[in-house]
Amino acid sequence: MYSAGILGVGCYVPEQVLTNRDLEEMVDTNDEWIVSRSGIRERRIAAPEEATSDLALQAARRALGDARLAPEELDLIIVGTDTPDMLFPATACLVQRGLGAYRAACFDLEAACSSVIYGLSIARQFIATGTYRHVLVIGSEILSRITDWSDRSTCVLFGDGAGALVVGRVEEGFGVLSTVLGSDGRAADILRVPAGGSRLPASHETVERRLHTLQMNGPEVYKFAVRVVERACDQALDQARIPKEDVELFVPHQANIRIIEGAARRFGFPMERVAVNVHRYGNMSMATIPVALQEAREEGRVHRGDHLLLVAFGAGMTWGAAVVRWSKED
Ligand code: ACO
Asked: Residues 24-65: pLDDT tens digits?
């Protein structure tokens, strides 16, 4: 079995910034409420001509540059998204076309905000067995297109962006040391976009009733998230045989600062060892972990040999955690 690790990271966020002050003009909310409940101060919004594959492509090019890899060397492209360019073909195929990565097999993965951890786990299996050498895992999301901009309980929380990881062989003892994945379909209704699929295809009625936008029971998602984040982290650390004291950087899904700080407290991680950027981007779904990881690298907070603990949760409900021993000379 080969060891699989992260060879390159890339991210892309759209230029347009939407601040809490801007939202005050749109719905009955205020900066104090948003910051105290979520930690979010601003988020990015994709330009009208941008689709999910466009964001993904930018992130992918940067990740390939970081890995010093040509697109033709990719064996597999996985895109995690809740907001594909269209129902089919897969957004991964559109990214393939943009990159010219024609040797790669491509598919989309739908595990909501946990998709990058799911993708990392799949990539690791293919690389460990020697089936593939290089897998591109992308999380790309334009949540602003499925946001109900009249619903103050959700529209303040989300943002658009993309992050990509190139996964490939690394030296033994480095790379992905463990991954834990989980799902609980009993909680499927607490976070969803009800229409647009085969259950409720698009009709005048679904549009009028705003059923093509994200609906969330915030308090239920919050409780669920706190529970699964702790459990998944414990399991991933156990499997990797890494004591929590050895984690140099905790990279949680950036949905809400209270969930992040709660988890950090529970594990005894001081905030200097936690990657946080939810205040700048809001919840970009499956893009948050690669973007937070890349920003931590740019701040000089990631070094070869460091243990990184990644954890995510999302609609489904789904969750995932991974322990990665960083192999790049940053
Ligand atoms: N501005 C002002 N008031 C608001 C706003 C707003 N934007 N939104 C809701 N309120 C009001 C509600 O109407 C309610 O008022 P009421 O009590 O008079 O009915 C009140 O604020 C609710 O306040 P709290 O109970 O204090 O809200 P809470 O502490 O539960 O925070 C929040 C709400 C932020 C949504 C929280 O539940 C949460 O973060 N949940 C998890 C969300 C999450 O992580 N989602 C993503 C998961 S997966 C993924 O990434 C897609």
From this structure: 999 999 999 999 999 999 999 999 999 999 999 999 999 999
Distance CA 137, CA 60 (A): 9
Helices (H) and strands (E) in the chain, counts: 11, 13
- pLDDT at residue 151, rounded to an integer: 97
Q: How far apart are CA 309 and CA 273, in angstroms?
A: 10
Burial class (CB in 10 A: 0-12, 13-18, 19+), 204: exposed
Q: Which atom of ligand 1 is nearest to the CA of 156?
A: 7
Q: Which of 208, 171, 305 lies closest to 248 in space, CA to CA? A: 305
- ω into 317 cis (within 30 of 0): yes
- Please name the residue whose Cα sits nearest to atom 9 of ligand 1: 153
Torsion angle defined by CA atoms of residues 325, 326, 329 and 330, in that order, rounded to the nearest 10 degrees: -140
Strand segments (E) across 232-278: 247-252
Residue nearest to atom 3 of ligand 1 (CA): 29
Model pTM?
Answer: 0.97
